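Here's what a typical entry looks like (3-oxoadipate enol-lactonase):
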Amino acid sequence: MSSDHAPGAERAAAVRHGAEAETGTESGSGAGAGAGSTAVRLHHRLDGPAGAPLLVLGPSLGTTLEIWEPQMEALTASWRVLRYDLPGHGGSAPAGGSSADESAAEPSAGVSGVEPEAVEPVAGSIAAAPAAGLTVDALAQAVLELVGEERFAIGGISLGGAIAATVAARVPGRVTGLVLCCTSARFGEPGPWRERAAAVRREGMRQLAPTLVGRWFTPRFAEGDPGRISWVLEMLHAVDPGSYAACCEAIAGYDLTGGLSAITAPTLVVAGAGDPATPVEHALTLVRGIDGALLTVVPGAHLASVERAAAVTSAVTRHLHETGVPTDSGTGSPAGTGSSVGNGPSAGDGRSGASAAGGSSPRRDERPIAGTRDDDDRRAAGMRTRREVLGDEHVERAIARTTAFTEDFQDLITRYAWDEIWNRPGLDRRTRSCVTLTALVAGGHLEELAMHVRAALRNGLTPDEIKEVLLQTAIYCGVPAANAAFAVAQRTLAESGA
């Protein structure tokens, strides 16, 4: 096992990502997934200030730990970020095999320096995968080996998200926050995944590239940023084919649907509006299954952390800071914490989520007792909601256009529309978006409709659900009004990549 630093060693000074290579910890780690299972060894890297809370991030199938690079500057402002590679990806040994040096090495004691005990799988979470025998449960156990006994937040994209959800379901008392990005409780039927595994074993990795680029990114992004596409494809082409196939078979056997209720950590689910691999419906399953989970939908496809890096960074940093950083950590507000987060179907109902310290803290949608809030409180809460629903870019433009003549009106809608109405617990944000779309069509306010179609996507509505709302308006608001609304909505959805 090779390592720049011992995995449990404390660094003398705070380290920020982006410094020289030796500022990060890189090593291979052995982990057993329980009796009779094959050990999984994960290469990993640790960046961020010594003593800061720990955040673990997992990559998508076919990519490496570098896939989170766009988020690292913001995240390492307040977190030690541990990123890992999947078997046969990046620096990790191939699935089912390792070098002689790695085989002889002692398993890593994790970042805490304490050897953890194996944890029993959550009931109903994983069915055994065929062939190489790799399972998502085994990968989750390998991640727990890296962490040791420390409490931590965890997140991941695609397969990394499935691993994060499995960890959160298995050790709910230790997970302070959870981020599930473009992932699923079940990635469809197992047959296609096993077929892909067989094809990769026969033909190698390069034959996947054309198909995966179309699933990972929208055509507009792929055509407009070829350098970024090449960067991601370099990761894909370097993956060991047998390990990629083993991961496909692990996905084929994965089904956490029945185990979602075991997750108690404050959870953010991020979905790409145009993601063909894990459509928004998969995100809604997660939101409905995890108590108090929040949903944000960003434009783009499967690798949203790359295609919509700023929006994902904003949503993740805000969520982790509000729900995942222990109050005694001594960290300040993360950089770039504007957010496009929107409440999902289960948000806005007054439930409390677990705080990072293990107690109970109010969710952002709970409201203080009437009469205890002044205008400054309303203004701050309203501005936060306005940014979450409409997006930072729109709100910044509106603020920039504010004049002495309009500033009182802007203040009024921030305090009363975006706080007193949008933050009321009686309706979730999906429902409020449906009502708003209908009202705008009825009033003929097409100049506002495009903005609220985008807001509806952020609040978790799918394009099909938006279509159903507009069909309803044809009956009650008139066909001409609905016809004009469909034209606006279709153009807006296309621009959003939905």
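The domain at 21-323 is CATH 3.40.50.1820 (Rossmann fold).

More examples are in the samples folder.
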